[in-house]
Amino acid sequence: MSKTPIDKALTPEKFESLKIKTPPTNSAGIGGLVAATSHAFKYIKPSNILKISTNLNQKGGFDCPGCAWPDPDDERSILGEYCENGLKAMSEEMQNKLINREFFAQHSVDELGGLSDFEIGKSGRLAEPMYLPKGASNYEPISWEDAFKKVGAHLNALGNPDEAAFYTSGRTTNEAAFLYQLFVREFGTANLPDCSNMCHEASGSALSETLGIGKGSVTLKDLYKADLVMIIGQNPATNHPRMLSALEKTKKNGGKIIAINPLPEAGLMKFTDPQSPIKMLTGGTKLSDVFVPVTINGDVAFFKAILLKLLAKEEELGDVFDKVFIEEYTDGYDAFISDLRIYNFDECLKASGVSKEIFDQAFELILNNDKIIICWAMGLTQHENAVDNIREVVNLLLLKGSIGKEGAGTCPVRGHSNVQGDRTVGIWEAAPQAFLDKIEAKYGFKPTVKHGYSVIEAIKAMYEGKVKVFFGMGGNFISAVPDTVYSAQAMANCNLTVHVSTKLNRSHLVTGKEALIFPCLGRAEKDYQKTGVQTQSVENSMGVVSSTKGVLEPCSSDLISEVAVVCGIANATLKDRSKINWLAYKDDYDLVRNDIAEVVDGFTDYNKKLKNPSGFYLPNGARIRKFKTKTGKANFSKNKLPEWTLKEDELIMMTIRSHDQFNTTIYGLDDRYRGVFNERRVIFMNKEDMKLRNLKEHDVVNLKSEFKGVIREANAFKVVGYDIPKNCCATYFPETNVLVPLDSFAHTAKTPASKSVRITIESL
Ligand SMILES: Nc1nc2c(c(=O)[nH]1)N[C@H]1C(S)=C(S)[C@@H](COP(=O)(O)OP(=O)(O)OC[C@H]3O[C@@H](n4cnc5c(=O)[nH]c(N)nc54)[C@H](O)[C@@H]3O)O[C@H]1N2
Ligand SMILES: Nc1nc2c(c(=O)[nH]1)N[C@H]1C(S)=C(S)[C@@H](COP(=O)(O)OP(=O)(O)OC[C@H]3O[C@@H](n4cnc5c(=O)[nH]c(N)nc54)[C@H](O)[C@@H]3O)O[C@H]1N2
Ligand code: SF4
Ligand SMILES: [Mo]
């Protein structure tokens, strides 16, 4: 019997062979070096390894396709300006094996849908365009020209342009992203859901409202000069490894670090720079001065406790708040303070799950320092009250005047290598009117002003038959989104699903009635066009735009660039009704940048500025205390203590990344820093919670989540006892996305609440 879309969307319930070791208390070092190089030698052609390591993140080279952590402006290590996971990202992208027509003739979609994500990913690089006709069991080859025509025909057959949704993952360069959104808007819709919707959207919402810019305010140099860095809901040793080298500099300069996390993540504790032979021998740097083991979603409570105690000290001493800053630059102080007084210190501290002793240690550091940087990632953004989490972070910084001066400010650490740039150049379902006006002025068509679908809205629209064509520019939609069962049906309801991808993934297997795979060039590959090998550009987490240019020969001659894909589709769809000469852009990307310079703020002389080997900083109001908010000032905000209680047998679950994955791409089956080897179907539990349920290590359990009367299930997980607060547990994304309800998301930002899923455990 053939598999249903849901069968293919769920990760198979099969075990490898779990081994548990005591988690290390130190990150990187020799272990990181060995892991990275062995991975590289296993998957990349040896002749390419040297080219990669001498060009990755180097000036004039190519940008790492991993995370969005910035490169230093000045000095870059000649030993290699990248980390273990950057090299793993390269190994994944530059695999030797190719997937072409023979592969798809041999393997049906049903068969591939039964593989694990690890197995799917290791099949190789997609090497030629493929088409899955209606009712067919296997993909078949198709020419680029015919493929573009098919997309055009489907789009032009829609009742209206809003019946298509155009997703973007965050690897797409500025040039490709700008053209993509331009095509979508000229086609007539603003349905531009993107991975940001599931990631830092809550940061963008909170920061725009309070500080007038949806991005962070600090630079790398600020980080070196901070007196205190707080790292909240973030696991840098795995997800932004080079951040640890920056934090080492902070420590060297006398700065202190507080880490707030339910898990004592190895990298938050101690770090050994793998590029420093001396450190390798001497055992590394202790990073966190205070580790705060907050309960999952206990951050607002913890912050309120800190804010209350600061207020008490201010009233006692009179010099705790930066009153000059508050007076001159902020709005809403009085309302904020009177709201804060409603809360009770003891209740807040209790709700945070933090002991008085640890609280006091963290409080002392916050009280006594004024150059504070707060860094955060998914541990703050993926909750229903995510926007409140981040607004509370801002409240603290404002009280201390810790924004817009050296060594102080906001640092939302972005995920995908160009997710920030994609938003800057227009990948936004709710783009500001000023941007749309500029598009109209430049191109002579009127973009729709109606907001488009974000990720969650797009899924619902697909499910309900309101969206009939899904187009994915990168990413792995079905595995990344919440509520896998519902979302699989949503995909299957489409007439056509198209994915522009480097690697095979589950989204190619959970398709609409027809499907297309467009294989594209990866970051490291040379992008040959009429005017020569093209340069592209990306923006990192700190707002620096820099160039990226591939250095390796493409793994297949059938690959084209994302820019060429957009130009091809736009040309085939819009034909004579377009006001734009689409095909000209693909011959010369300078032309795209000339347009960006005219339409997007901060890009004047783009082509010229990009020649600077370190790139250039985009303007950032918050960095210079120019707050472009409605009040013209930095806004204090009132945030509620989240009101949720667990039922007696419930646990609160966060879905997190292992050390061996990049989102839905599974590099390997180990999570070295947490002492878990050769298995991903695990649930990390507090030992007391295990005892209460009569569970032992390695026991197999099923997980259930109930939300508004709907029960969702994920079966077959092995129990791992772990240092995690009571009533909390953790599993890996994407195996448990099936448990994340589609309607549980951050208020105003709509980020799925994938870090606070209430579950019950059924032992077998
Ligand atoms: N190697 C690698 N690098 C990556 C990625 C990857 O998958 N692999 N993904 C990239 C992307 S797109 C992103 S967005 C980033 C993600 O980077 P992270 O946000 O670091 O990734 P997560 O694994 O989701 O980790 C969330 C952290 O938050 C903690 N946490 C969970 N809930 C709470 C909470 O309620 N409060 C607090 N204080 N902490 C909490 C978890 O224990 C965990 O340490 O990394 C990027 N870089
Ligand atoms: N439960 C749960 N769900 C989550 C999260 C979580 O923490 N928990 N995190 C969320 C977050 S933060 C994010 S950002 C999303 C990620 O969601 P996505 O960005 O959609 O997912 P990725 O796994 O990063 O996408 C991987 C695929 O991108 C393709 N790809 C790689 N490089 C390129 C390229 O250069 N060009 C093109 N065209 N394709 C490329 C490959 O085919 C690969 O299979 O997932 C979200 N989902
Ligand atoms: S820190 Fe991020 S960007 Fe830098 S090399 Fe590692 S994965 Fe790549
Ligand atoms: Mo992300």
Q: What report would you give on this structure?
A:
With 764 residues, the protein is an alpha/beta fold. Strands 6-5-18-17-16-7 form a six-stranded mixed β-sheet, sandwiched between helices. The protein has a six-stranded mixed β-barrel with strand order 25-32-29-31-30-33. A five-stranded parallel β-sheet has the order 12-9-8-14-15, sandwiched between helices. The radius of gyration is 25 Å and the shape is globular. Helix 10 (201-211) packs parallel to helix 22. The longest helix is centred in the middle third of the chain and has 19 residues, at 299-317. The two termini are 28 Å apart. Helices cover 36% and strands 17% of the residues. The model has no long low-confidence stretch (mean pLDDT 94). The protein has three domains: 35-175 and 427-621, Rossmann fold (3-Layer(aba) Sandwich); 206-412, Dimethylsulfoxide Reductase, domain 2; 647-763, Barwin-like endoglucanases. Strand 21 and strand 22 form a beta hairpin. It contains 32 helices and 33 strands. Bound molecules: ligand MGD (2 copies), iron/sulfur cluster and molybdenum atom. Molybdenum atom (MO) binds next to loops.
Structurally, the number of domains stands at 3
Over the alpha carbons, how many angstroms does the gyration radius reach? 25 Å
Q: Please identify the top-level CATH class of the largest domain.
A: Alpha Beta
Q: Tell me the distance between the termini.
A: 28 Å
Indicate the CATH topology of the largest domain: Rossmann fold
Work out the helicity level: 25-40%
CATH architectural label of the largest domain: 3-Layer(aba) Sandwich
How many DSSP helices? 32
Structural class: alpha/beta
Strand runs, count: 33
